């Protein structure tokens, strides 16, 4: 939160120096890293040892936003992003079962967002959030299958874009995904309530 506060202050200062309006549209393409950890509740729900779960996933995010209204120092935007990431972990000699299966953790989410943007055309920071849907899976790579159930997922976070020329910006985003729990069914195991943090870094285009 301290980082986001600094971004907001810097962008507000930039607005005072250069009040040119944020453009109407931006698209994002970023790489992602998620230190999602080894959740014991998740491991128990799937029947795995927590120590054998992949701790960090890697992937990417694509998104687009339009900026519909400006009121004083705030520009309001609407848009959405699609994130996907995964990671595999092979059994190790230090595991309880050194001959255990390779596990795959996979996360895919569609995240609509309402954003509050602070800055000017050359660069701005933002806070955003919305309610979407995600699919989280943890399964054996050799014989398991991904989760076929989608969970209602709240996303919230913030970031910034700094344009290096008229069309391309350096872009970063820190986002949290609060995943609603799923009850087990006859064909699918349950899923505990989880919050996953994802850090995205890449480029924005207009």
Total helices: the number is 2
- Identify the CATH architecture: Beta Barrel
Bulk shape: elongated
Proportion of β residues?
A: over 45%
- Per DSSP E runs of 2 or more residues, the count of β-strands stands at 8
Structural class: mainly beta
Keywords:
single chain; 206 residues; mainly beta; Porin; eight-stranded antiparallel beta barrel; 2 helices; 8 strands; 11% helix
Provide a descriptive summary of the structure in words.
This protein is mainly β and 206 residues long. It has one domain (2-205): Porin (Beta Barrel). Helices cover 11% and strands 55% of the residues. It has helices spanning 2-17, 40-46; strands at residues 25-34, 57-71, 74-89, 103-120, 123-140, 151-163, 168-179, 194-205. An eight-stranded antiparallel β-barrel has the order 1-2-3-4-5-6-7-8. A hairpin with a 4-residue loop joins β6 (151-163) and β7. The longest helix is centred in the first third of the chain and has 16 residues, at 2-17. It is elongated and about 60 Å long. The two termini are 27 Å apart. Mean pLDDT is 89; it is low at 2-18.
Topology diagram in text:
Blueprint: H1 2-17, E1 25-34, H2 40-46, E2 57-71, E3 74-89, E4 103-120, E5 123-140, E6 151-163, E7 168-179, E8 194-205
Antiparallel strand pairs: 1-2, 1-8, 2-3, 3-4, 4-5, 5-6, 6-7, 7-8
Short description:
By secondary structure, the chain is mainly beta.
